[in-house]
Specification:
Layout (H helix, E strand, L loop, with lengths): L2 H20 L12 H12 L1 H16 L20 H19 L6 H27 L1 H9 L3 H21 L6
Helix pairs in contact: 1-2, 1-3, 2-3, 2-4, 2-7, 3-4, 4-5, 5-6, 5-7
């Protein structure tokens, strides 16, 4: 694919992240959204570098004040607030999802699900770790990690399903 095609796909995945952020399952202090689904799919579909680029476009839009984060948030506040740990984990997880796909770890359902679930756990660990600095470790576990474990498992399977569709719809390079 050309750099222009990759750039357009990165923009499209950044838009998918913004849309996923608006799917809101109310929870406190951090809502459950489809952001992590879109983040991991971007990395898995675009590869580690372009997946990270897509996340950085998304986060750049948020930092510029566009209401692309969950609950329509934007500007710099979320980058230091309760959700900052999750936000800063996004590029890390996207890059690792791209590396996992490159290594063939997302080719089979059981292994792929386990890898993606571990990446969700990474997002939750980084997010929960930061949240703990705001509300304490026990409350961060109770409010910012534990309630999202089932959703993380479901979203991991959904990423694999979406990736399978992506592979059927797009030309795949030979390895």
């Amino acid at each position: 694919m050309s750099a222009l095609t990759h750039s357009l796909l990165a923009l499209a995945f950044a838009a998918l992240m913004a849309l996923g952020a608006q799917v809101d399952v109310p929870m406190h202090p951090v809502p459950m959204t489809m952001q992590s689904f879109a983040v991991l799919l971007a990395g898995a579909a675009l590869g580690p570098a372009w997946g990270v680029v897509a996340v950085l476009i998304y986060l750049g839009a948020a930092a510029l004040g566009l209401p692309v984060l969950s609950e329509g948030a934007g500007a710099l506040g979320p980058f230091t607030g309760a959700t900052a740990g999750y936000i800063f984990a996004f590029p890390v997880a996207a890059g690792l999802a791209g590396l996992a796909r490159r290594r063939g770890l997302l080719d089979r359902l059981p292994v792929g699900t386990a890898v993606l679930f571990c990446l969700h756990l990474l997002l939750l660990a980084m997010g929960g770790g930061w949240l703990a600095t705001k509300i304490g470790a026990a409350d961060a576990w109770t409010a910012g990690v534990r309630p999202f474990l089932i959703g993380a498992a479901v979203k991991s399977v959904l990423v694999l399903a979406a990736l399978a569709a992506w592979r059927r719809l797009t030309p795949q390079p030979r390895t």
